[in-house]
Amino acid sequence: MKKIGFALFVTWGIIACGQSGQPPQVQPTPPPPSNHTGPSLYVSPSGLDSNPGTQEQPFKTIAYADKVASAGATIHVAPGTYFGGFTTMKSGTATAPVTFTSDTKWGAKIIPPQAGGSSMGWHSTGDYVIINGFDISGLITSPGVDWRFALYAEGNGTQIINNRLHDILTDAAAAHAANASGNGGAIVEIQLGANGNNPAYTGTISNNLVYNIGFDASNNREGGIYFGSPGVIANNIVYGIAGGVAITPEKLSSHVNCVNNTIFHSRFGIYLSNDTPGEQVTTNWNVNNNIIYDTVYALTETTGSGVAGHNIFSNNNISLASQATYRLSVGASNFNPVNGDPQFVNYVATGGGDYHLKPNSVDINSGTSVGAPTTDFDGTPRPQGGAFDVGAYERVSP
Fold first, then answer.
1. CATH superfamily name and code, 73-357
2. pLDDT of 234-268, one tens digit each?
3. What's the burial of 42, exposed, middle or buried (CB within 10 Å: 0-12/13-18/19+)?
4. Cβ neighbourhood burial of 56 (10 Å; 0-12, 13-18, 19+)
5. Contact (Cβ atoms closer than 8 angstroms) between residue 94 and residue 157
6. pTM value?
């Protein structure tokens, strides 16, 4: 879990656009979770862990529901506030995952406890787990624990979808302490360790709203989405990454579709790097159809040796980067770049705006089908027009 700082003393080349090439073979974007036929368990702030976990007599904590769950179970979490700093360990299977779902999207809110607990809001270690629709916030409004992660998962087949994950290490003292220790933090991370470059393993971070980590630009060991697994990063909206990076691999990571994300108002947009001696170069990433707007450095690929990682960059819209738009390894290229202001309906740098596309946006019908998800952030089917749109939202004509 040690975070690697984003060194600027790296090797990159000025890239050429519009060249041809074959995309790497990566895991397809999975469909949204289906309705499972396994047992249902229920959790409510008014419940008791001594209850049977039925809808009429729910449990009180997510962690206790996890203890009694079995493969295929759906754990329904009612709206309300829950203290985080817990670990869930139960595993499902590829055909019968364990599903944690907030019955009202973002209605089940997980916040730091006033004392004790972990440096992680939610630590998931089981395989084939779906975490769907929660609001996890590290914002401390009273004495409490400073989390370094909102959500940290280590299990194969994990899907983190439709969540609002935010406000980690925004306290100045906590952010600087984490940075100085060499640990840093992330809002959301999937880390499969040595299996991060094994295509037999997979993870998904999709359709999440991810924002606000770090206190200022000196906190360069914090990030929005860290991904140490093969799989999918799609349809996420990421902003407010003060000193670090919006989306980046963690240690070993290969065979990834990083597609149709909207990133803005952050220091780094997407940063593929592996400058740590003895570790494998990040390789076989499809970085397609992303909007990266209002950053310092937009799209970066670096390795200490200057060896390209066989990654493909295609149909990305990068604009309003104050220092650099593309900084890619020698031999890497960006194919079919989309140039121009994305024309959000209402751009607000600090969040709360409307990041759908205006009717005359250059991003409409400008994406590639390679790795593209079949729905957008809202669940709207893709494509709506003659081709896929760029970014987390697909434009729907009135």
1. Single-stranded right-handed beta-helix, Pectin lyase-like (2.160.20.10)
2. 999 999 998 889 999 877 688 999 999 999 999 99
3. buried
4. exposed
5. yes
6. 0.89
